[in-house]
Amino acid sequence: MINWAVFDPELLRTFLAVERAGGFTAAGKVLGLRQSTVSGHIARLEKATGRALLRRDTRNLALTADGAAMVGFARAILEANARAEQFFSHSTLTGVLRFGASDDLVASDLPEVLLEFRRTHPGIDLELTVGLSETLKTRMESGELDLVFGKRLPGEQHGELIWRDRLVWAGPPGTAVTDDPIPFVTYPPPSLTRRIALQALDRAGRVWRTTCISDSQLGLRAAALAGLGYVVHAASLLPDGLVELDAPHLPALGDLEFVLMHRRTHPTAPEQALHDAITANAHRLHGLRPSDTDAR
C-alpha cells in the first residue's frame, strides 16, 4: 500500500514544474534549482510511488500513464495543503482579554509579543492596563483584569514563575556613586522594587533621600539620566542609557521574580493563548523555564 504521507509537497511542486516546463533544466530555472536537484526530486517521488512517472529519451521527456495520473493527484494534494495552511494560520479565537502588565515589561520586548499575538488572533479584543504589579494584582483579584504579567517577591507563591532576575543599582555610564545620603529615584508605593531597596538601605543603616518619584519607567529613566539619583531595576530589563553601577558599598538587593497571574483557575482559550505567547518569548530571551529557575 502506498503511504501518501511520504509525498513531500516540495517533490510534487518540482514534478509539476517539470511537466509544465517540459524538462529538468527548464524546471530548474523556474524553481531556482540545479538540474541535479530536480532529477533527485523526481527520483524520490518515483521511489515513493513505486512507478515510473516520466518517460525519458535523448531528446524528449513525456509523462507515463502513471505520471499523467500523478499530475491530478499532485495538484489536489498541494491545493489541500494550501487550504489547510490558510485555515490554521488564522485563529478562530474570539472574545475580550483584559491584560495587565507592569511598566518595565511594557518598556522592553512585550509590545512585540502583543503585536504578534494580535496578528495571530485578530478575533481577540485585547485591553491593556499598565501599572505597578501590586496594583494590577489587586485589580485582577477584584475582577477588573483577567491576566497579569508582573512581579512578586522571592518566597511568594501567587502566580506562575516565568523567570527570576537580579536587582541592581543603575545609572548612566560613568556615574560617580556618592556617599550618604544616597539619592534614590523610584516608583511610588506599592512598588516592589521600592520596598526591596528601602529595606536593604535600612538594614545597612544607610541614609537616603528620594530625589524623584514617577509611576512610569520613562520618568525614572529621565531622572536617572539627568543625574538626580540611582534606580533599582531588574538587570535584564535596564532602560536604554542606564547600566549597572559598580558600587560595592551600596547594599545588595537580591532577586525579583516575574510571574503570570490568572484570575481564573481554568483560563479561557484567549488567556491561555497569550500565556503561551509570553512564556515562549521569555524562554527564548532568558533561556530558562520556570522549572529551571526554581532549581537554582
Summarize the structure.
This protein is an alpha/beta fold and 296 residues long. It is built from 11 helices and 11 strands.
Could you list some keywords that capture this structure?
single chain; about 300 residues; alpha/beta; Arc Repressor Mutant, subunit A; D-Maltodextrin-Binding Protein, domain 2; 2 domains; two-stranded antiparallel sheet; 11 helices; 11 strands; about 20% strand; elongated; disordered C terminus
Task: Write structural notes for this entry.
With 296 residues, the protein is an alpha/beta fold. The chain folds into 2 domains: 85 residues, Arc Repressor Mutant, subunit A (Orthogonal Bundle); 204 residues, 3-Layer(aba) Sandwich (D-Maltodextrin-Binding Protein, domain 2). 43% of the residues lie in helices and 22% in strands. It contains 11 helices and 11 strands. The strands form 2 sheets. Strands 3, 4, 5, 6, 7, 8, 9, 10 and 11 form a 9-stranded mixed β-sheet that branches. Strands 1-2 form a two-stranded antiparallel sheet. The longest helix has 24 residues.
